[in-house]
Design goal:
The chain is an alpha/beta fold. Helix content is 37%, strand content 18%. Among the domains are: 176 residues, Rossmann fold (3-Layer(aba) Sandwich), CATH 3.40.50; 140 residues, no CATH class; 201 residues, Valyl/Leucyl/Isoleucyl-tRNA synthetase, editing domain (Isoleucyl-tRNA Synthetase, domain 2, Alpha-Beta Complex); 97 residues, 2-Layer Sandwich (hypothetical protein PF0899 fold). The strands form nine sheets. Strands 7, 8, 9, 10, 11, 12, 13, 14, 15 and 16 form a ten-stranded mixed beta sheet that branches. A hairpin with a 3-residue loop joins strand 10 and strand 11. It starts with 12 loop residues before the first helix and ends with a helix. One of its GO terms (cellular component) is mitochondrion. InterPro entries: aa-tRNA-synth_I_CS, aa-tRNA-synth_Ia, Anticodon_Ile_BEm, Ile-tRNA-ligase, Ile-tRNA-ligase_type1, Ile-tRNA_ligase, M/V/L/I-tRNA-synth_anticd-bd, Rossmann-like_a/b/a_fold. One of its GO terms (biological process) is mitochondrial translation.
Length: 984
């Protein structure tokens, strides 16, 4: 620790007086400098060089985490479960905000006496990593190398890419001053993690929550895999081709025959009119859905014939469609009728089915139903035993079509395939209207940024319907910040029915299913799955993807499977990465308490992602009726925007890398350092989207500079603080007591905001206290006593006592946000203050004594501030006129018109008013008549009483030692300084 020099040598006061008598013309203002107790510290004005910063990061992060984790003194614990970032590419500003917010909470809990458990993690599997890993190779080979490389080769390349990304990201996270167990970090690619995940899958299957079905799923044609809802993003301006198509009715049901009777000539064909934005799915049509309770009518079109449509949608079709009188009926009357698809050459008659989801808000009131390409369609047709039909391959091309449509095979359904379907319908006269620029909201694959399709394919599903009620119930005692997060998570959970957890890629955790070669049915008994998982635990997941003609080693050692290795094949599906990360709670210590983790904190998008997958997998394997969510608190943050409010993206060129904030951007903002980056995070209202740019960062830089200057002043003023003064109000100046009162109040307000994770309010409260109560008030007032009073006098020690309390509190409240600043500061802090500790975290949170609080100050301080404001206005008038050079060089005449609280306070603090106003003399209610006109004055109504202040140049002289205008003669010491030097 740096040892500071204390200046004790003072010149003989009588020699100084003799000198001033001989040569009064010489400036004496600096001759007494050595007799003053001026601040002294080697605490730097700016943060240090890179090697100094690196040491501070290590000391304030790694060493502190290790110290507390190995300590036996903590009675409470705090577990923060890290939502694993994706191990792909470098970090962006959102990553920095996420990790720093977590670190602020962990550091605050540590200061509150809790042992903190924080194990960072990484999400390592999935398509983006696989694609990124193969991108370079594909570019060199000028083709998709995934089509020529073996699964084992792809996995090796993807693993290497993920591990490199983890190391790169971890280096950055640690550079941000984030403390945690980096050595024992968790990764979803580790065998131990994968086995935990597989056991959750097995348990869910054992409980009947997982099954394999052939049903529609979201499908990425670019990435050739099934997608979960959480992997979609919606394009609000997607352009589709909307078609109105006629389906000819083949037969009328008995009810409809009675209603229509002979009102329609036998030579006129009756049709139904449907409207669709996916004409390519008309090939897979199996039914038309109607609303049984809705009213339907028959309309006539001169060129196209007769149609059945919903009465509520008739006018939307246009004036060319004329209603035929007395031909109305309900959807229920249509149910026993049949129709024929205009694309089908066979004679198959298709049914009308009742569905409550058919509404009158859009379309014709009759809905084209393709069970292979729609979720509602699938459920409706399954209810009526209608087979699913989806003649589309993994790349979104038509396949396995009937003979008359064979020429469409190989065409992409969202492009040329759909065009050909429309062409066929037009040739048959089945297209009534066409809108090729229909704009609407449509789901896109968030990876490829391309529109998806809905396609029926065999997949593994988790039954959310059986879990979600218990899941929502478990959220009742969970604390959300902001509180709206609870509603979001509940809504997203309630809206789920089934979760498609299988993916058609190789870089991931395999679904441990073995299939019969002939029937392609999986072995789903628990003993078989147990055996497969035990083999994966021994051999690793890579072994599962090895090409094998005989898979005997994966079959149980039972007579049933003896020598049957060639009759079975291993499944190629991997698990959804949300299932990967969603089972990360298995890494937590179950003995922690009712909840495995105290905190989950991620972006708002995780209500439909990790928060939900964690919740669902945990509830699924918990005891029925006693299921607990894995988290006690859920905290969410928004996304980063530029200063114009636009979302940051590389394509727009408006991103800011965290390193740019740390190192500065020439001409835009200065280097903020690690603490500046952290201060920006803490200053932001992270519950909303956060804007950042040059103006914001410059303001943060100024705030950080102010805090460093404040701490430097405190350290310098305490350089000789060795004899601590015990707190006794009798020994303290009222201004000191006010400062202690304000400090305690501020510290309590800060703690309240820390407790509810409102860090921007923490920063606002600290900045307000620093700027308003310290820099602009207390520090200015006490400099005279601190510098010029006798060295070991009670009044000077009282000031140092207050400054030591301010420093202790500031080291405490700033440490969660700017740990490098406070770590550096404590190295220069006197032992009287740091108690011999080498870190603010070892000192713990500072709780000030209750004696510092004085209820009277709550009423008095606002009134004093208002009086001071009037005085400063009067002083400013004199400065503008250049009659007054500084506040010290003027006297104040203060007039209070009336009695009451204001006059009582002024009387109470009368002897301290010159210090409060930082002026030479103060006269209250002077004899001189105000009516004669006060030259430099200001006034205001304060608590119903008029207060007038006048500033006038003082008649006293400047003391060459303390620079106060309290000397009776020019170039002579004031009484206080003369006595001080006489006793030296």
């Amino acid at each position: 620790m740096l040892r500071l020099k204390v200046v004790t040598k003072r010149p003989n006061p009588y020699i100084v007086r003799l000198y001033s008598t001989i040569n009064k013309s010489k400036d004496l203002n600096h001759s007494y400098a050595d007799t003053l107790s001026l601040p002294k510290t080697e605490f730097p004005n700016r943060s240090g060089k890179p090697d100094v910063i690196a040491k501070l990061i290590k000391r304030s992060s790694d060493e502190i985490y290790d110290w507390q984790i190995n300590s036996n003194t903590f009675q409470k614990t705090s577990v923060f479960h890290d939502g694993p970032p994706y191990a792909n590419a470098s970090l962006h500003l959102g990553h920095a905000m996420n990790k720093i917010l977590k670190d602020i909470i962990n550091r605050y809990d540590l200061l509150q006496g809790k042992k903190v458990f924080y194990k960072p993690g990484w999400d390592c599997h999935g398509l983006p990593i696989e694609l990124k890993a193969l991108q370079t190779l594909s570019a060199e080979a000028k083709k998709d190398v995934a089509t020529v490389l073996s699964p084992s080769e792809i996995r090796t390349i993807a693993r290497s890419h993920a591990l490199e990304a983890i190391e790169d990201q971890m280096k950055s996270f640690r550079m941000f001053g984030v403390m945690g167990d980096w050595v024992h970090r968790y990764r979803t690619l580790d065998t131990d993690y994968e086995i935990r995940q597989l056991n959750v899958f097995k348990e869910m299957m054992h409980r009947g929550f997982i099954s394999r079905k052939n049903k529609p799923v979201y499908w990425g044609t670019e990435t050739r895999t099934a997608l979960a809802e959480a992997e979609l993003e919606y394009n609000e301006k997607h352009k589709s081709t909307a078609a109105t198509v006629k389906f000819p009715i083949v037969s009328l049901g008995e009810n409809l025959k009675k209603i229509i009777g002979e009102k329609i000539p036998s030579n006129q064909k009756l049709n139904v009119l449907i409207w669709t934005t996916t004409p390519w799915t008309l090939i897979s049509n199996k039914a038309v859905a109607v609303n049984a309770e809705m009213e339907y009518v028959v309309v006539s079109h001169e060129n196209h014939g007769l149609f059945i449509v919903a009465e509520s949608r008739r006018e939307s079709l246009g004036e060319d469609f004329k209603k035929i009188d007395n031909l109305s009926f309900t959807g229920a009357d249509l149910l026993s009728s049949t129709y024929k698809s205009p694309l089908s050459s066979d004679s198959e008659e298709r049914p009308f089915l009742a569905a409550s989801y058919v509404t009158s808000t859009i379309g014709t009131g009759l809905v084209h139903t393709a069970p292979g390409h729609g979720f509602d369609d699938y459920l409706l047709c399954r209810k009526h035993n209608i087979d699913t039909y989806s003649p589309v391959d993994d790349e979104g091309n038509y396949t396995n079509l009937p003979n008359d449509l064979k020429h469409l095979e190989g065409l992409y359904v969202l492009n040329q395939g759909q065009k050909e379907v429309i062409k066929i319908l037009e040739e048959k006269g089945s297209i009534i209207s066409l809108n090729r620029n229909y704009r609407h909201k449509y789901p896109y694959d968030w990876r490829s940024k391309k529109p998806i399709i809905i396609r029926s394919t065999p997949q593994w599903f988790a039954d959310i319907d059986s879990i979600k009620d218990d899941a929502v119930k478990s959220l009742q005692d969970v604390i959300f910040y902001p509180s709206t997060g609870k509603t979001r998570l509940e809504a997203f959970t309630q809206s789920r029915s089934e979760w498609c957890i299988s993916r058609q890629r190789v870089w991931g955790v395999p679904i441990p299913a073995i299939y019969n070669k002939q029937t392609l049915e999986p072995l789903t008994d628990i003993s078989s799955m147990d055996y497969v998982i035990s083999q994966i635990e021994q051999l690793g997941t890579d072994a599962w993807f090895e090409e094998e003609e005989d898979i005997q080693r994966w079959l149980p050692n039972t007579p049933e499977f003896e020598s049957k290795g060639k009759d079975y094949i291993k499944g190629k599906d991997t698990m959804d990465v949300w299932f990967d990360s969603g089972t990360s709670w298995t890494m937590l210590d179950p003995s922690h308490g009712e909840y495995l983790a105290d905190y989950y904190l991620e972006g708002t998008d995780q209500h439909r992602g990790w928060f939900q997958s964690s919740l669902l997998t945990k509830i699924a394997v918990s005891e029925k009726g006693n299921a607990k969510a894995p988290f006690k608190h859920i905290i969410t943050h928004g996304f980063t925007l530029d200063e114009k409010g636009q979302k940051m993206s590389k394509s727009l060129g408006n991103t800011i890398a965290p390193e740019k904030i740390i190192n500065g951007q020439k001409g835009k903002w200065p280097p903020l350092g690690v603490d500046g980056l952290r201060l920006w995070v803490a200053s932001s209202d992270y519950t909303k989207d956060v804007s950042v740019g040059p103006i914001v960062l410059k303001n943060v830089a100024e705030s950080l500079k102010k805090l460093r200057i404040t701490i430097r002043f405190l350290l310098g003023s305490l350089h000789d603080y060795t004899n601590e003064l015990s707190f006794d109000k009798e020994n303290f100046h009222p201004i000191d007591l006010i400062a202690l009162h304000q400090l305690k109040k501020m510290a309590e307000q800060v703690k309240e905001q820390y407790d509810i994770f409102c860090f921007n309010r923490v920063v606002q409260i600290i900045n307000h206290h620093t700027n308003t109560y310290l820099s602009a008030f207390y520090f200015d007032i006490i400099k005279d006593r601190l510098y010029a009073s006798p060295h070991n006098s009670t009044e000077r020690r009282a000031v140092q006592f207050v400054l030591s309390e301010i420093l202790r509190v500031y080291l405490s409240i700033l440490s969660p946000i700017t740990p490098l600043l406070t770590q550096e500061a404590i190295d220069y802090t006197p032992q009287m203050v740091n108690k011999g500790q080498t870190s603010p975290f070892k000192l713990g949170w500072v709780n000030l004594p209750e004696e510092y609080h004085d209820p009277l100050f709550e009423e008095e301080i606002p009134l004093i501030e208002k009086v001071l404001s009037v005085v400063k206005q009067a002083m400013e008038a004199g400065r503008v006129a250049k009659d007054i050079t500084s506040s010290l060089s003027c006297d104040i005449n203060l007039y209070v018109d009336g009695s009451g609280k204001v006059s009582n306070i002024i009387e109470k603090y009368r002897q301290y008013l010159p210090e409060l106003f930082i002026c030479s003399q103060v006269e209250v209610n002077p004899v001189a008549s105000i009516s004669e006109g006060w030259k430099y004055s200001a006034s205001n109504q304060i608590d119903g009483v008029k207060v007038i202040a006048e500033a006038v140049p003082t008649k006293h002289h400047k003391c060459p030692r303390c620079w106060q205008f309290t000397s009776l003669e020019e170039d002579s010491l004031c009484k206080r300084c003369d006595e001080t030097l006489s006793q030296a």
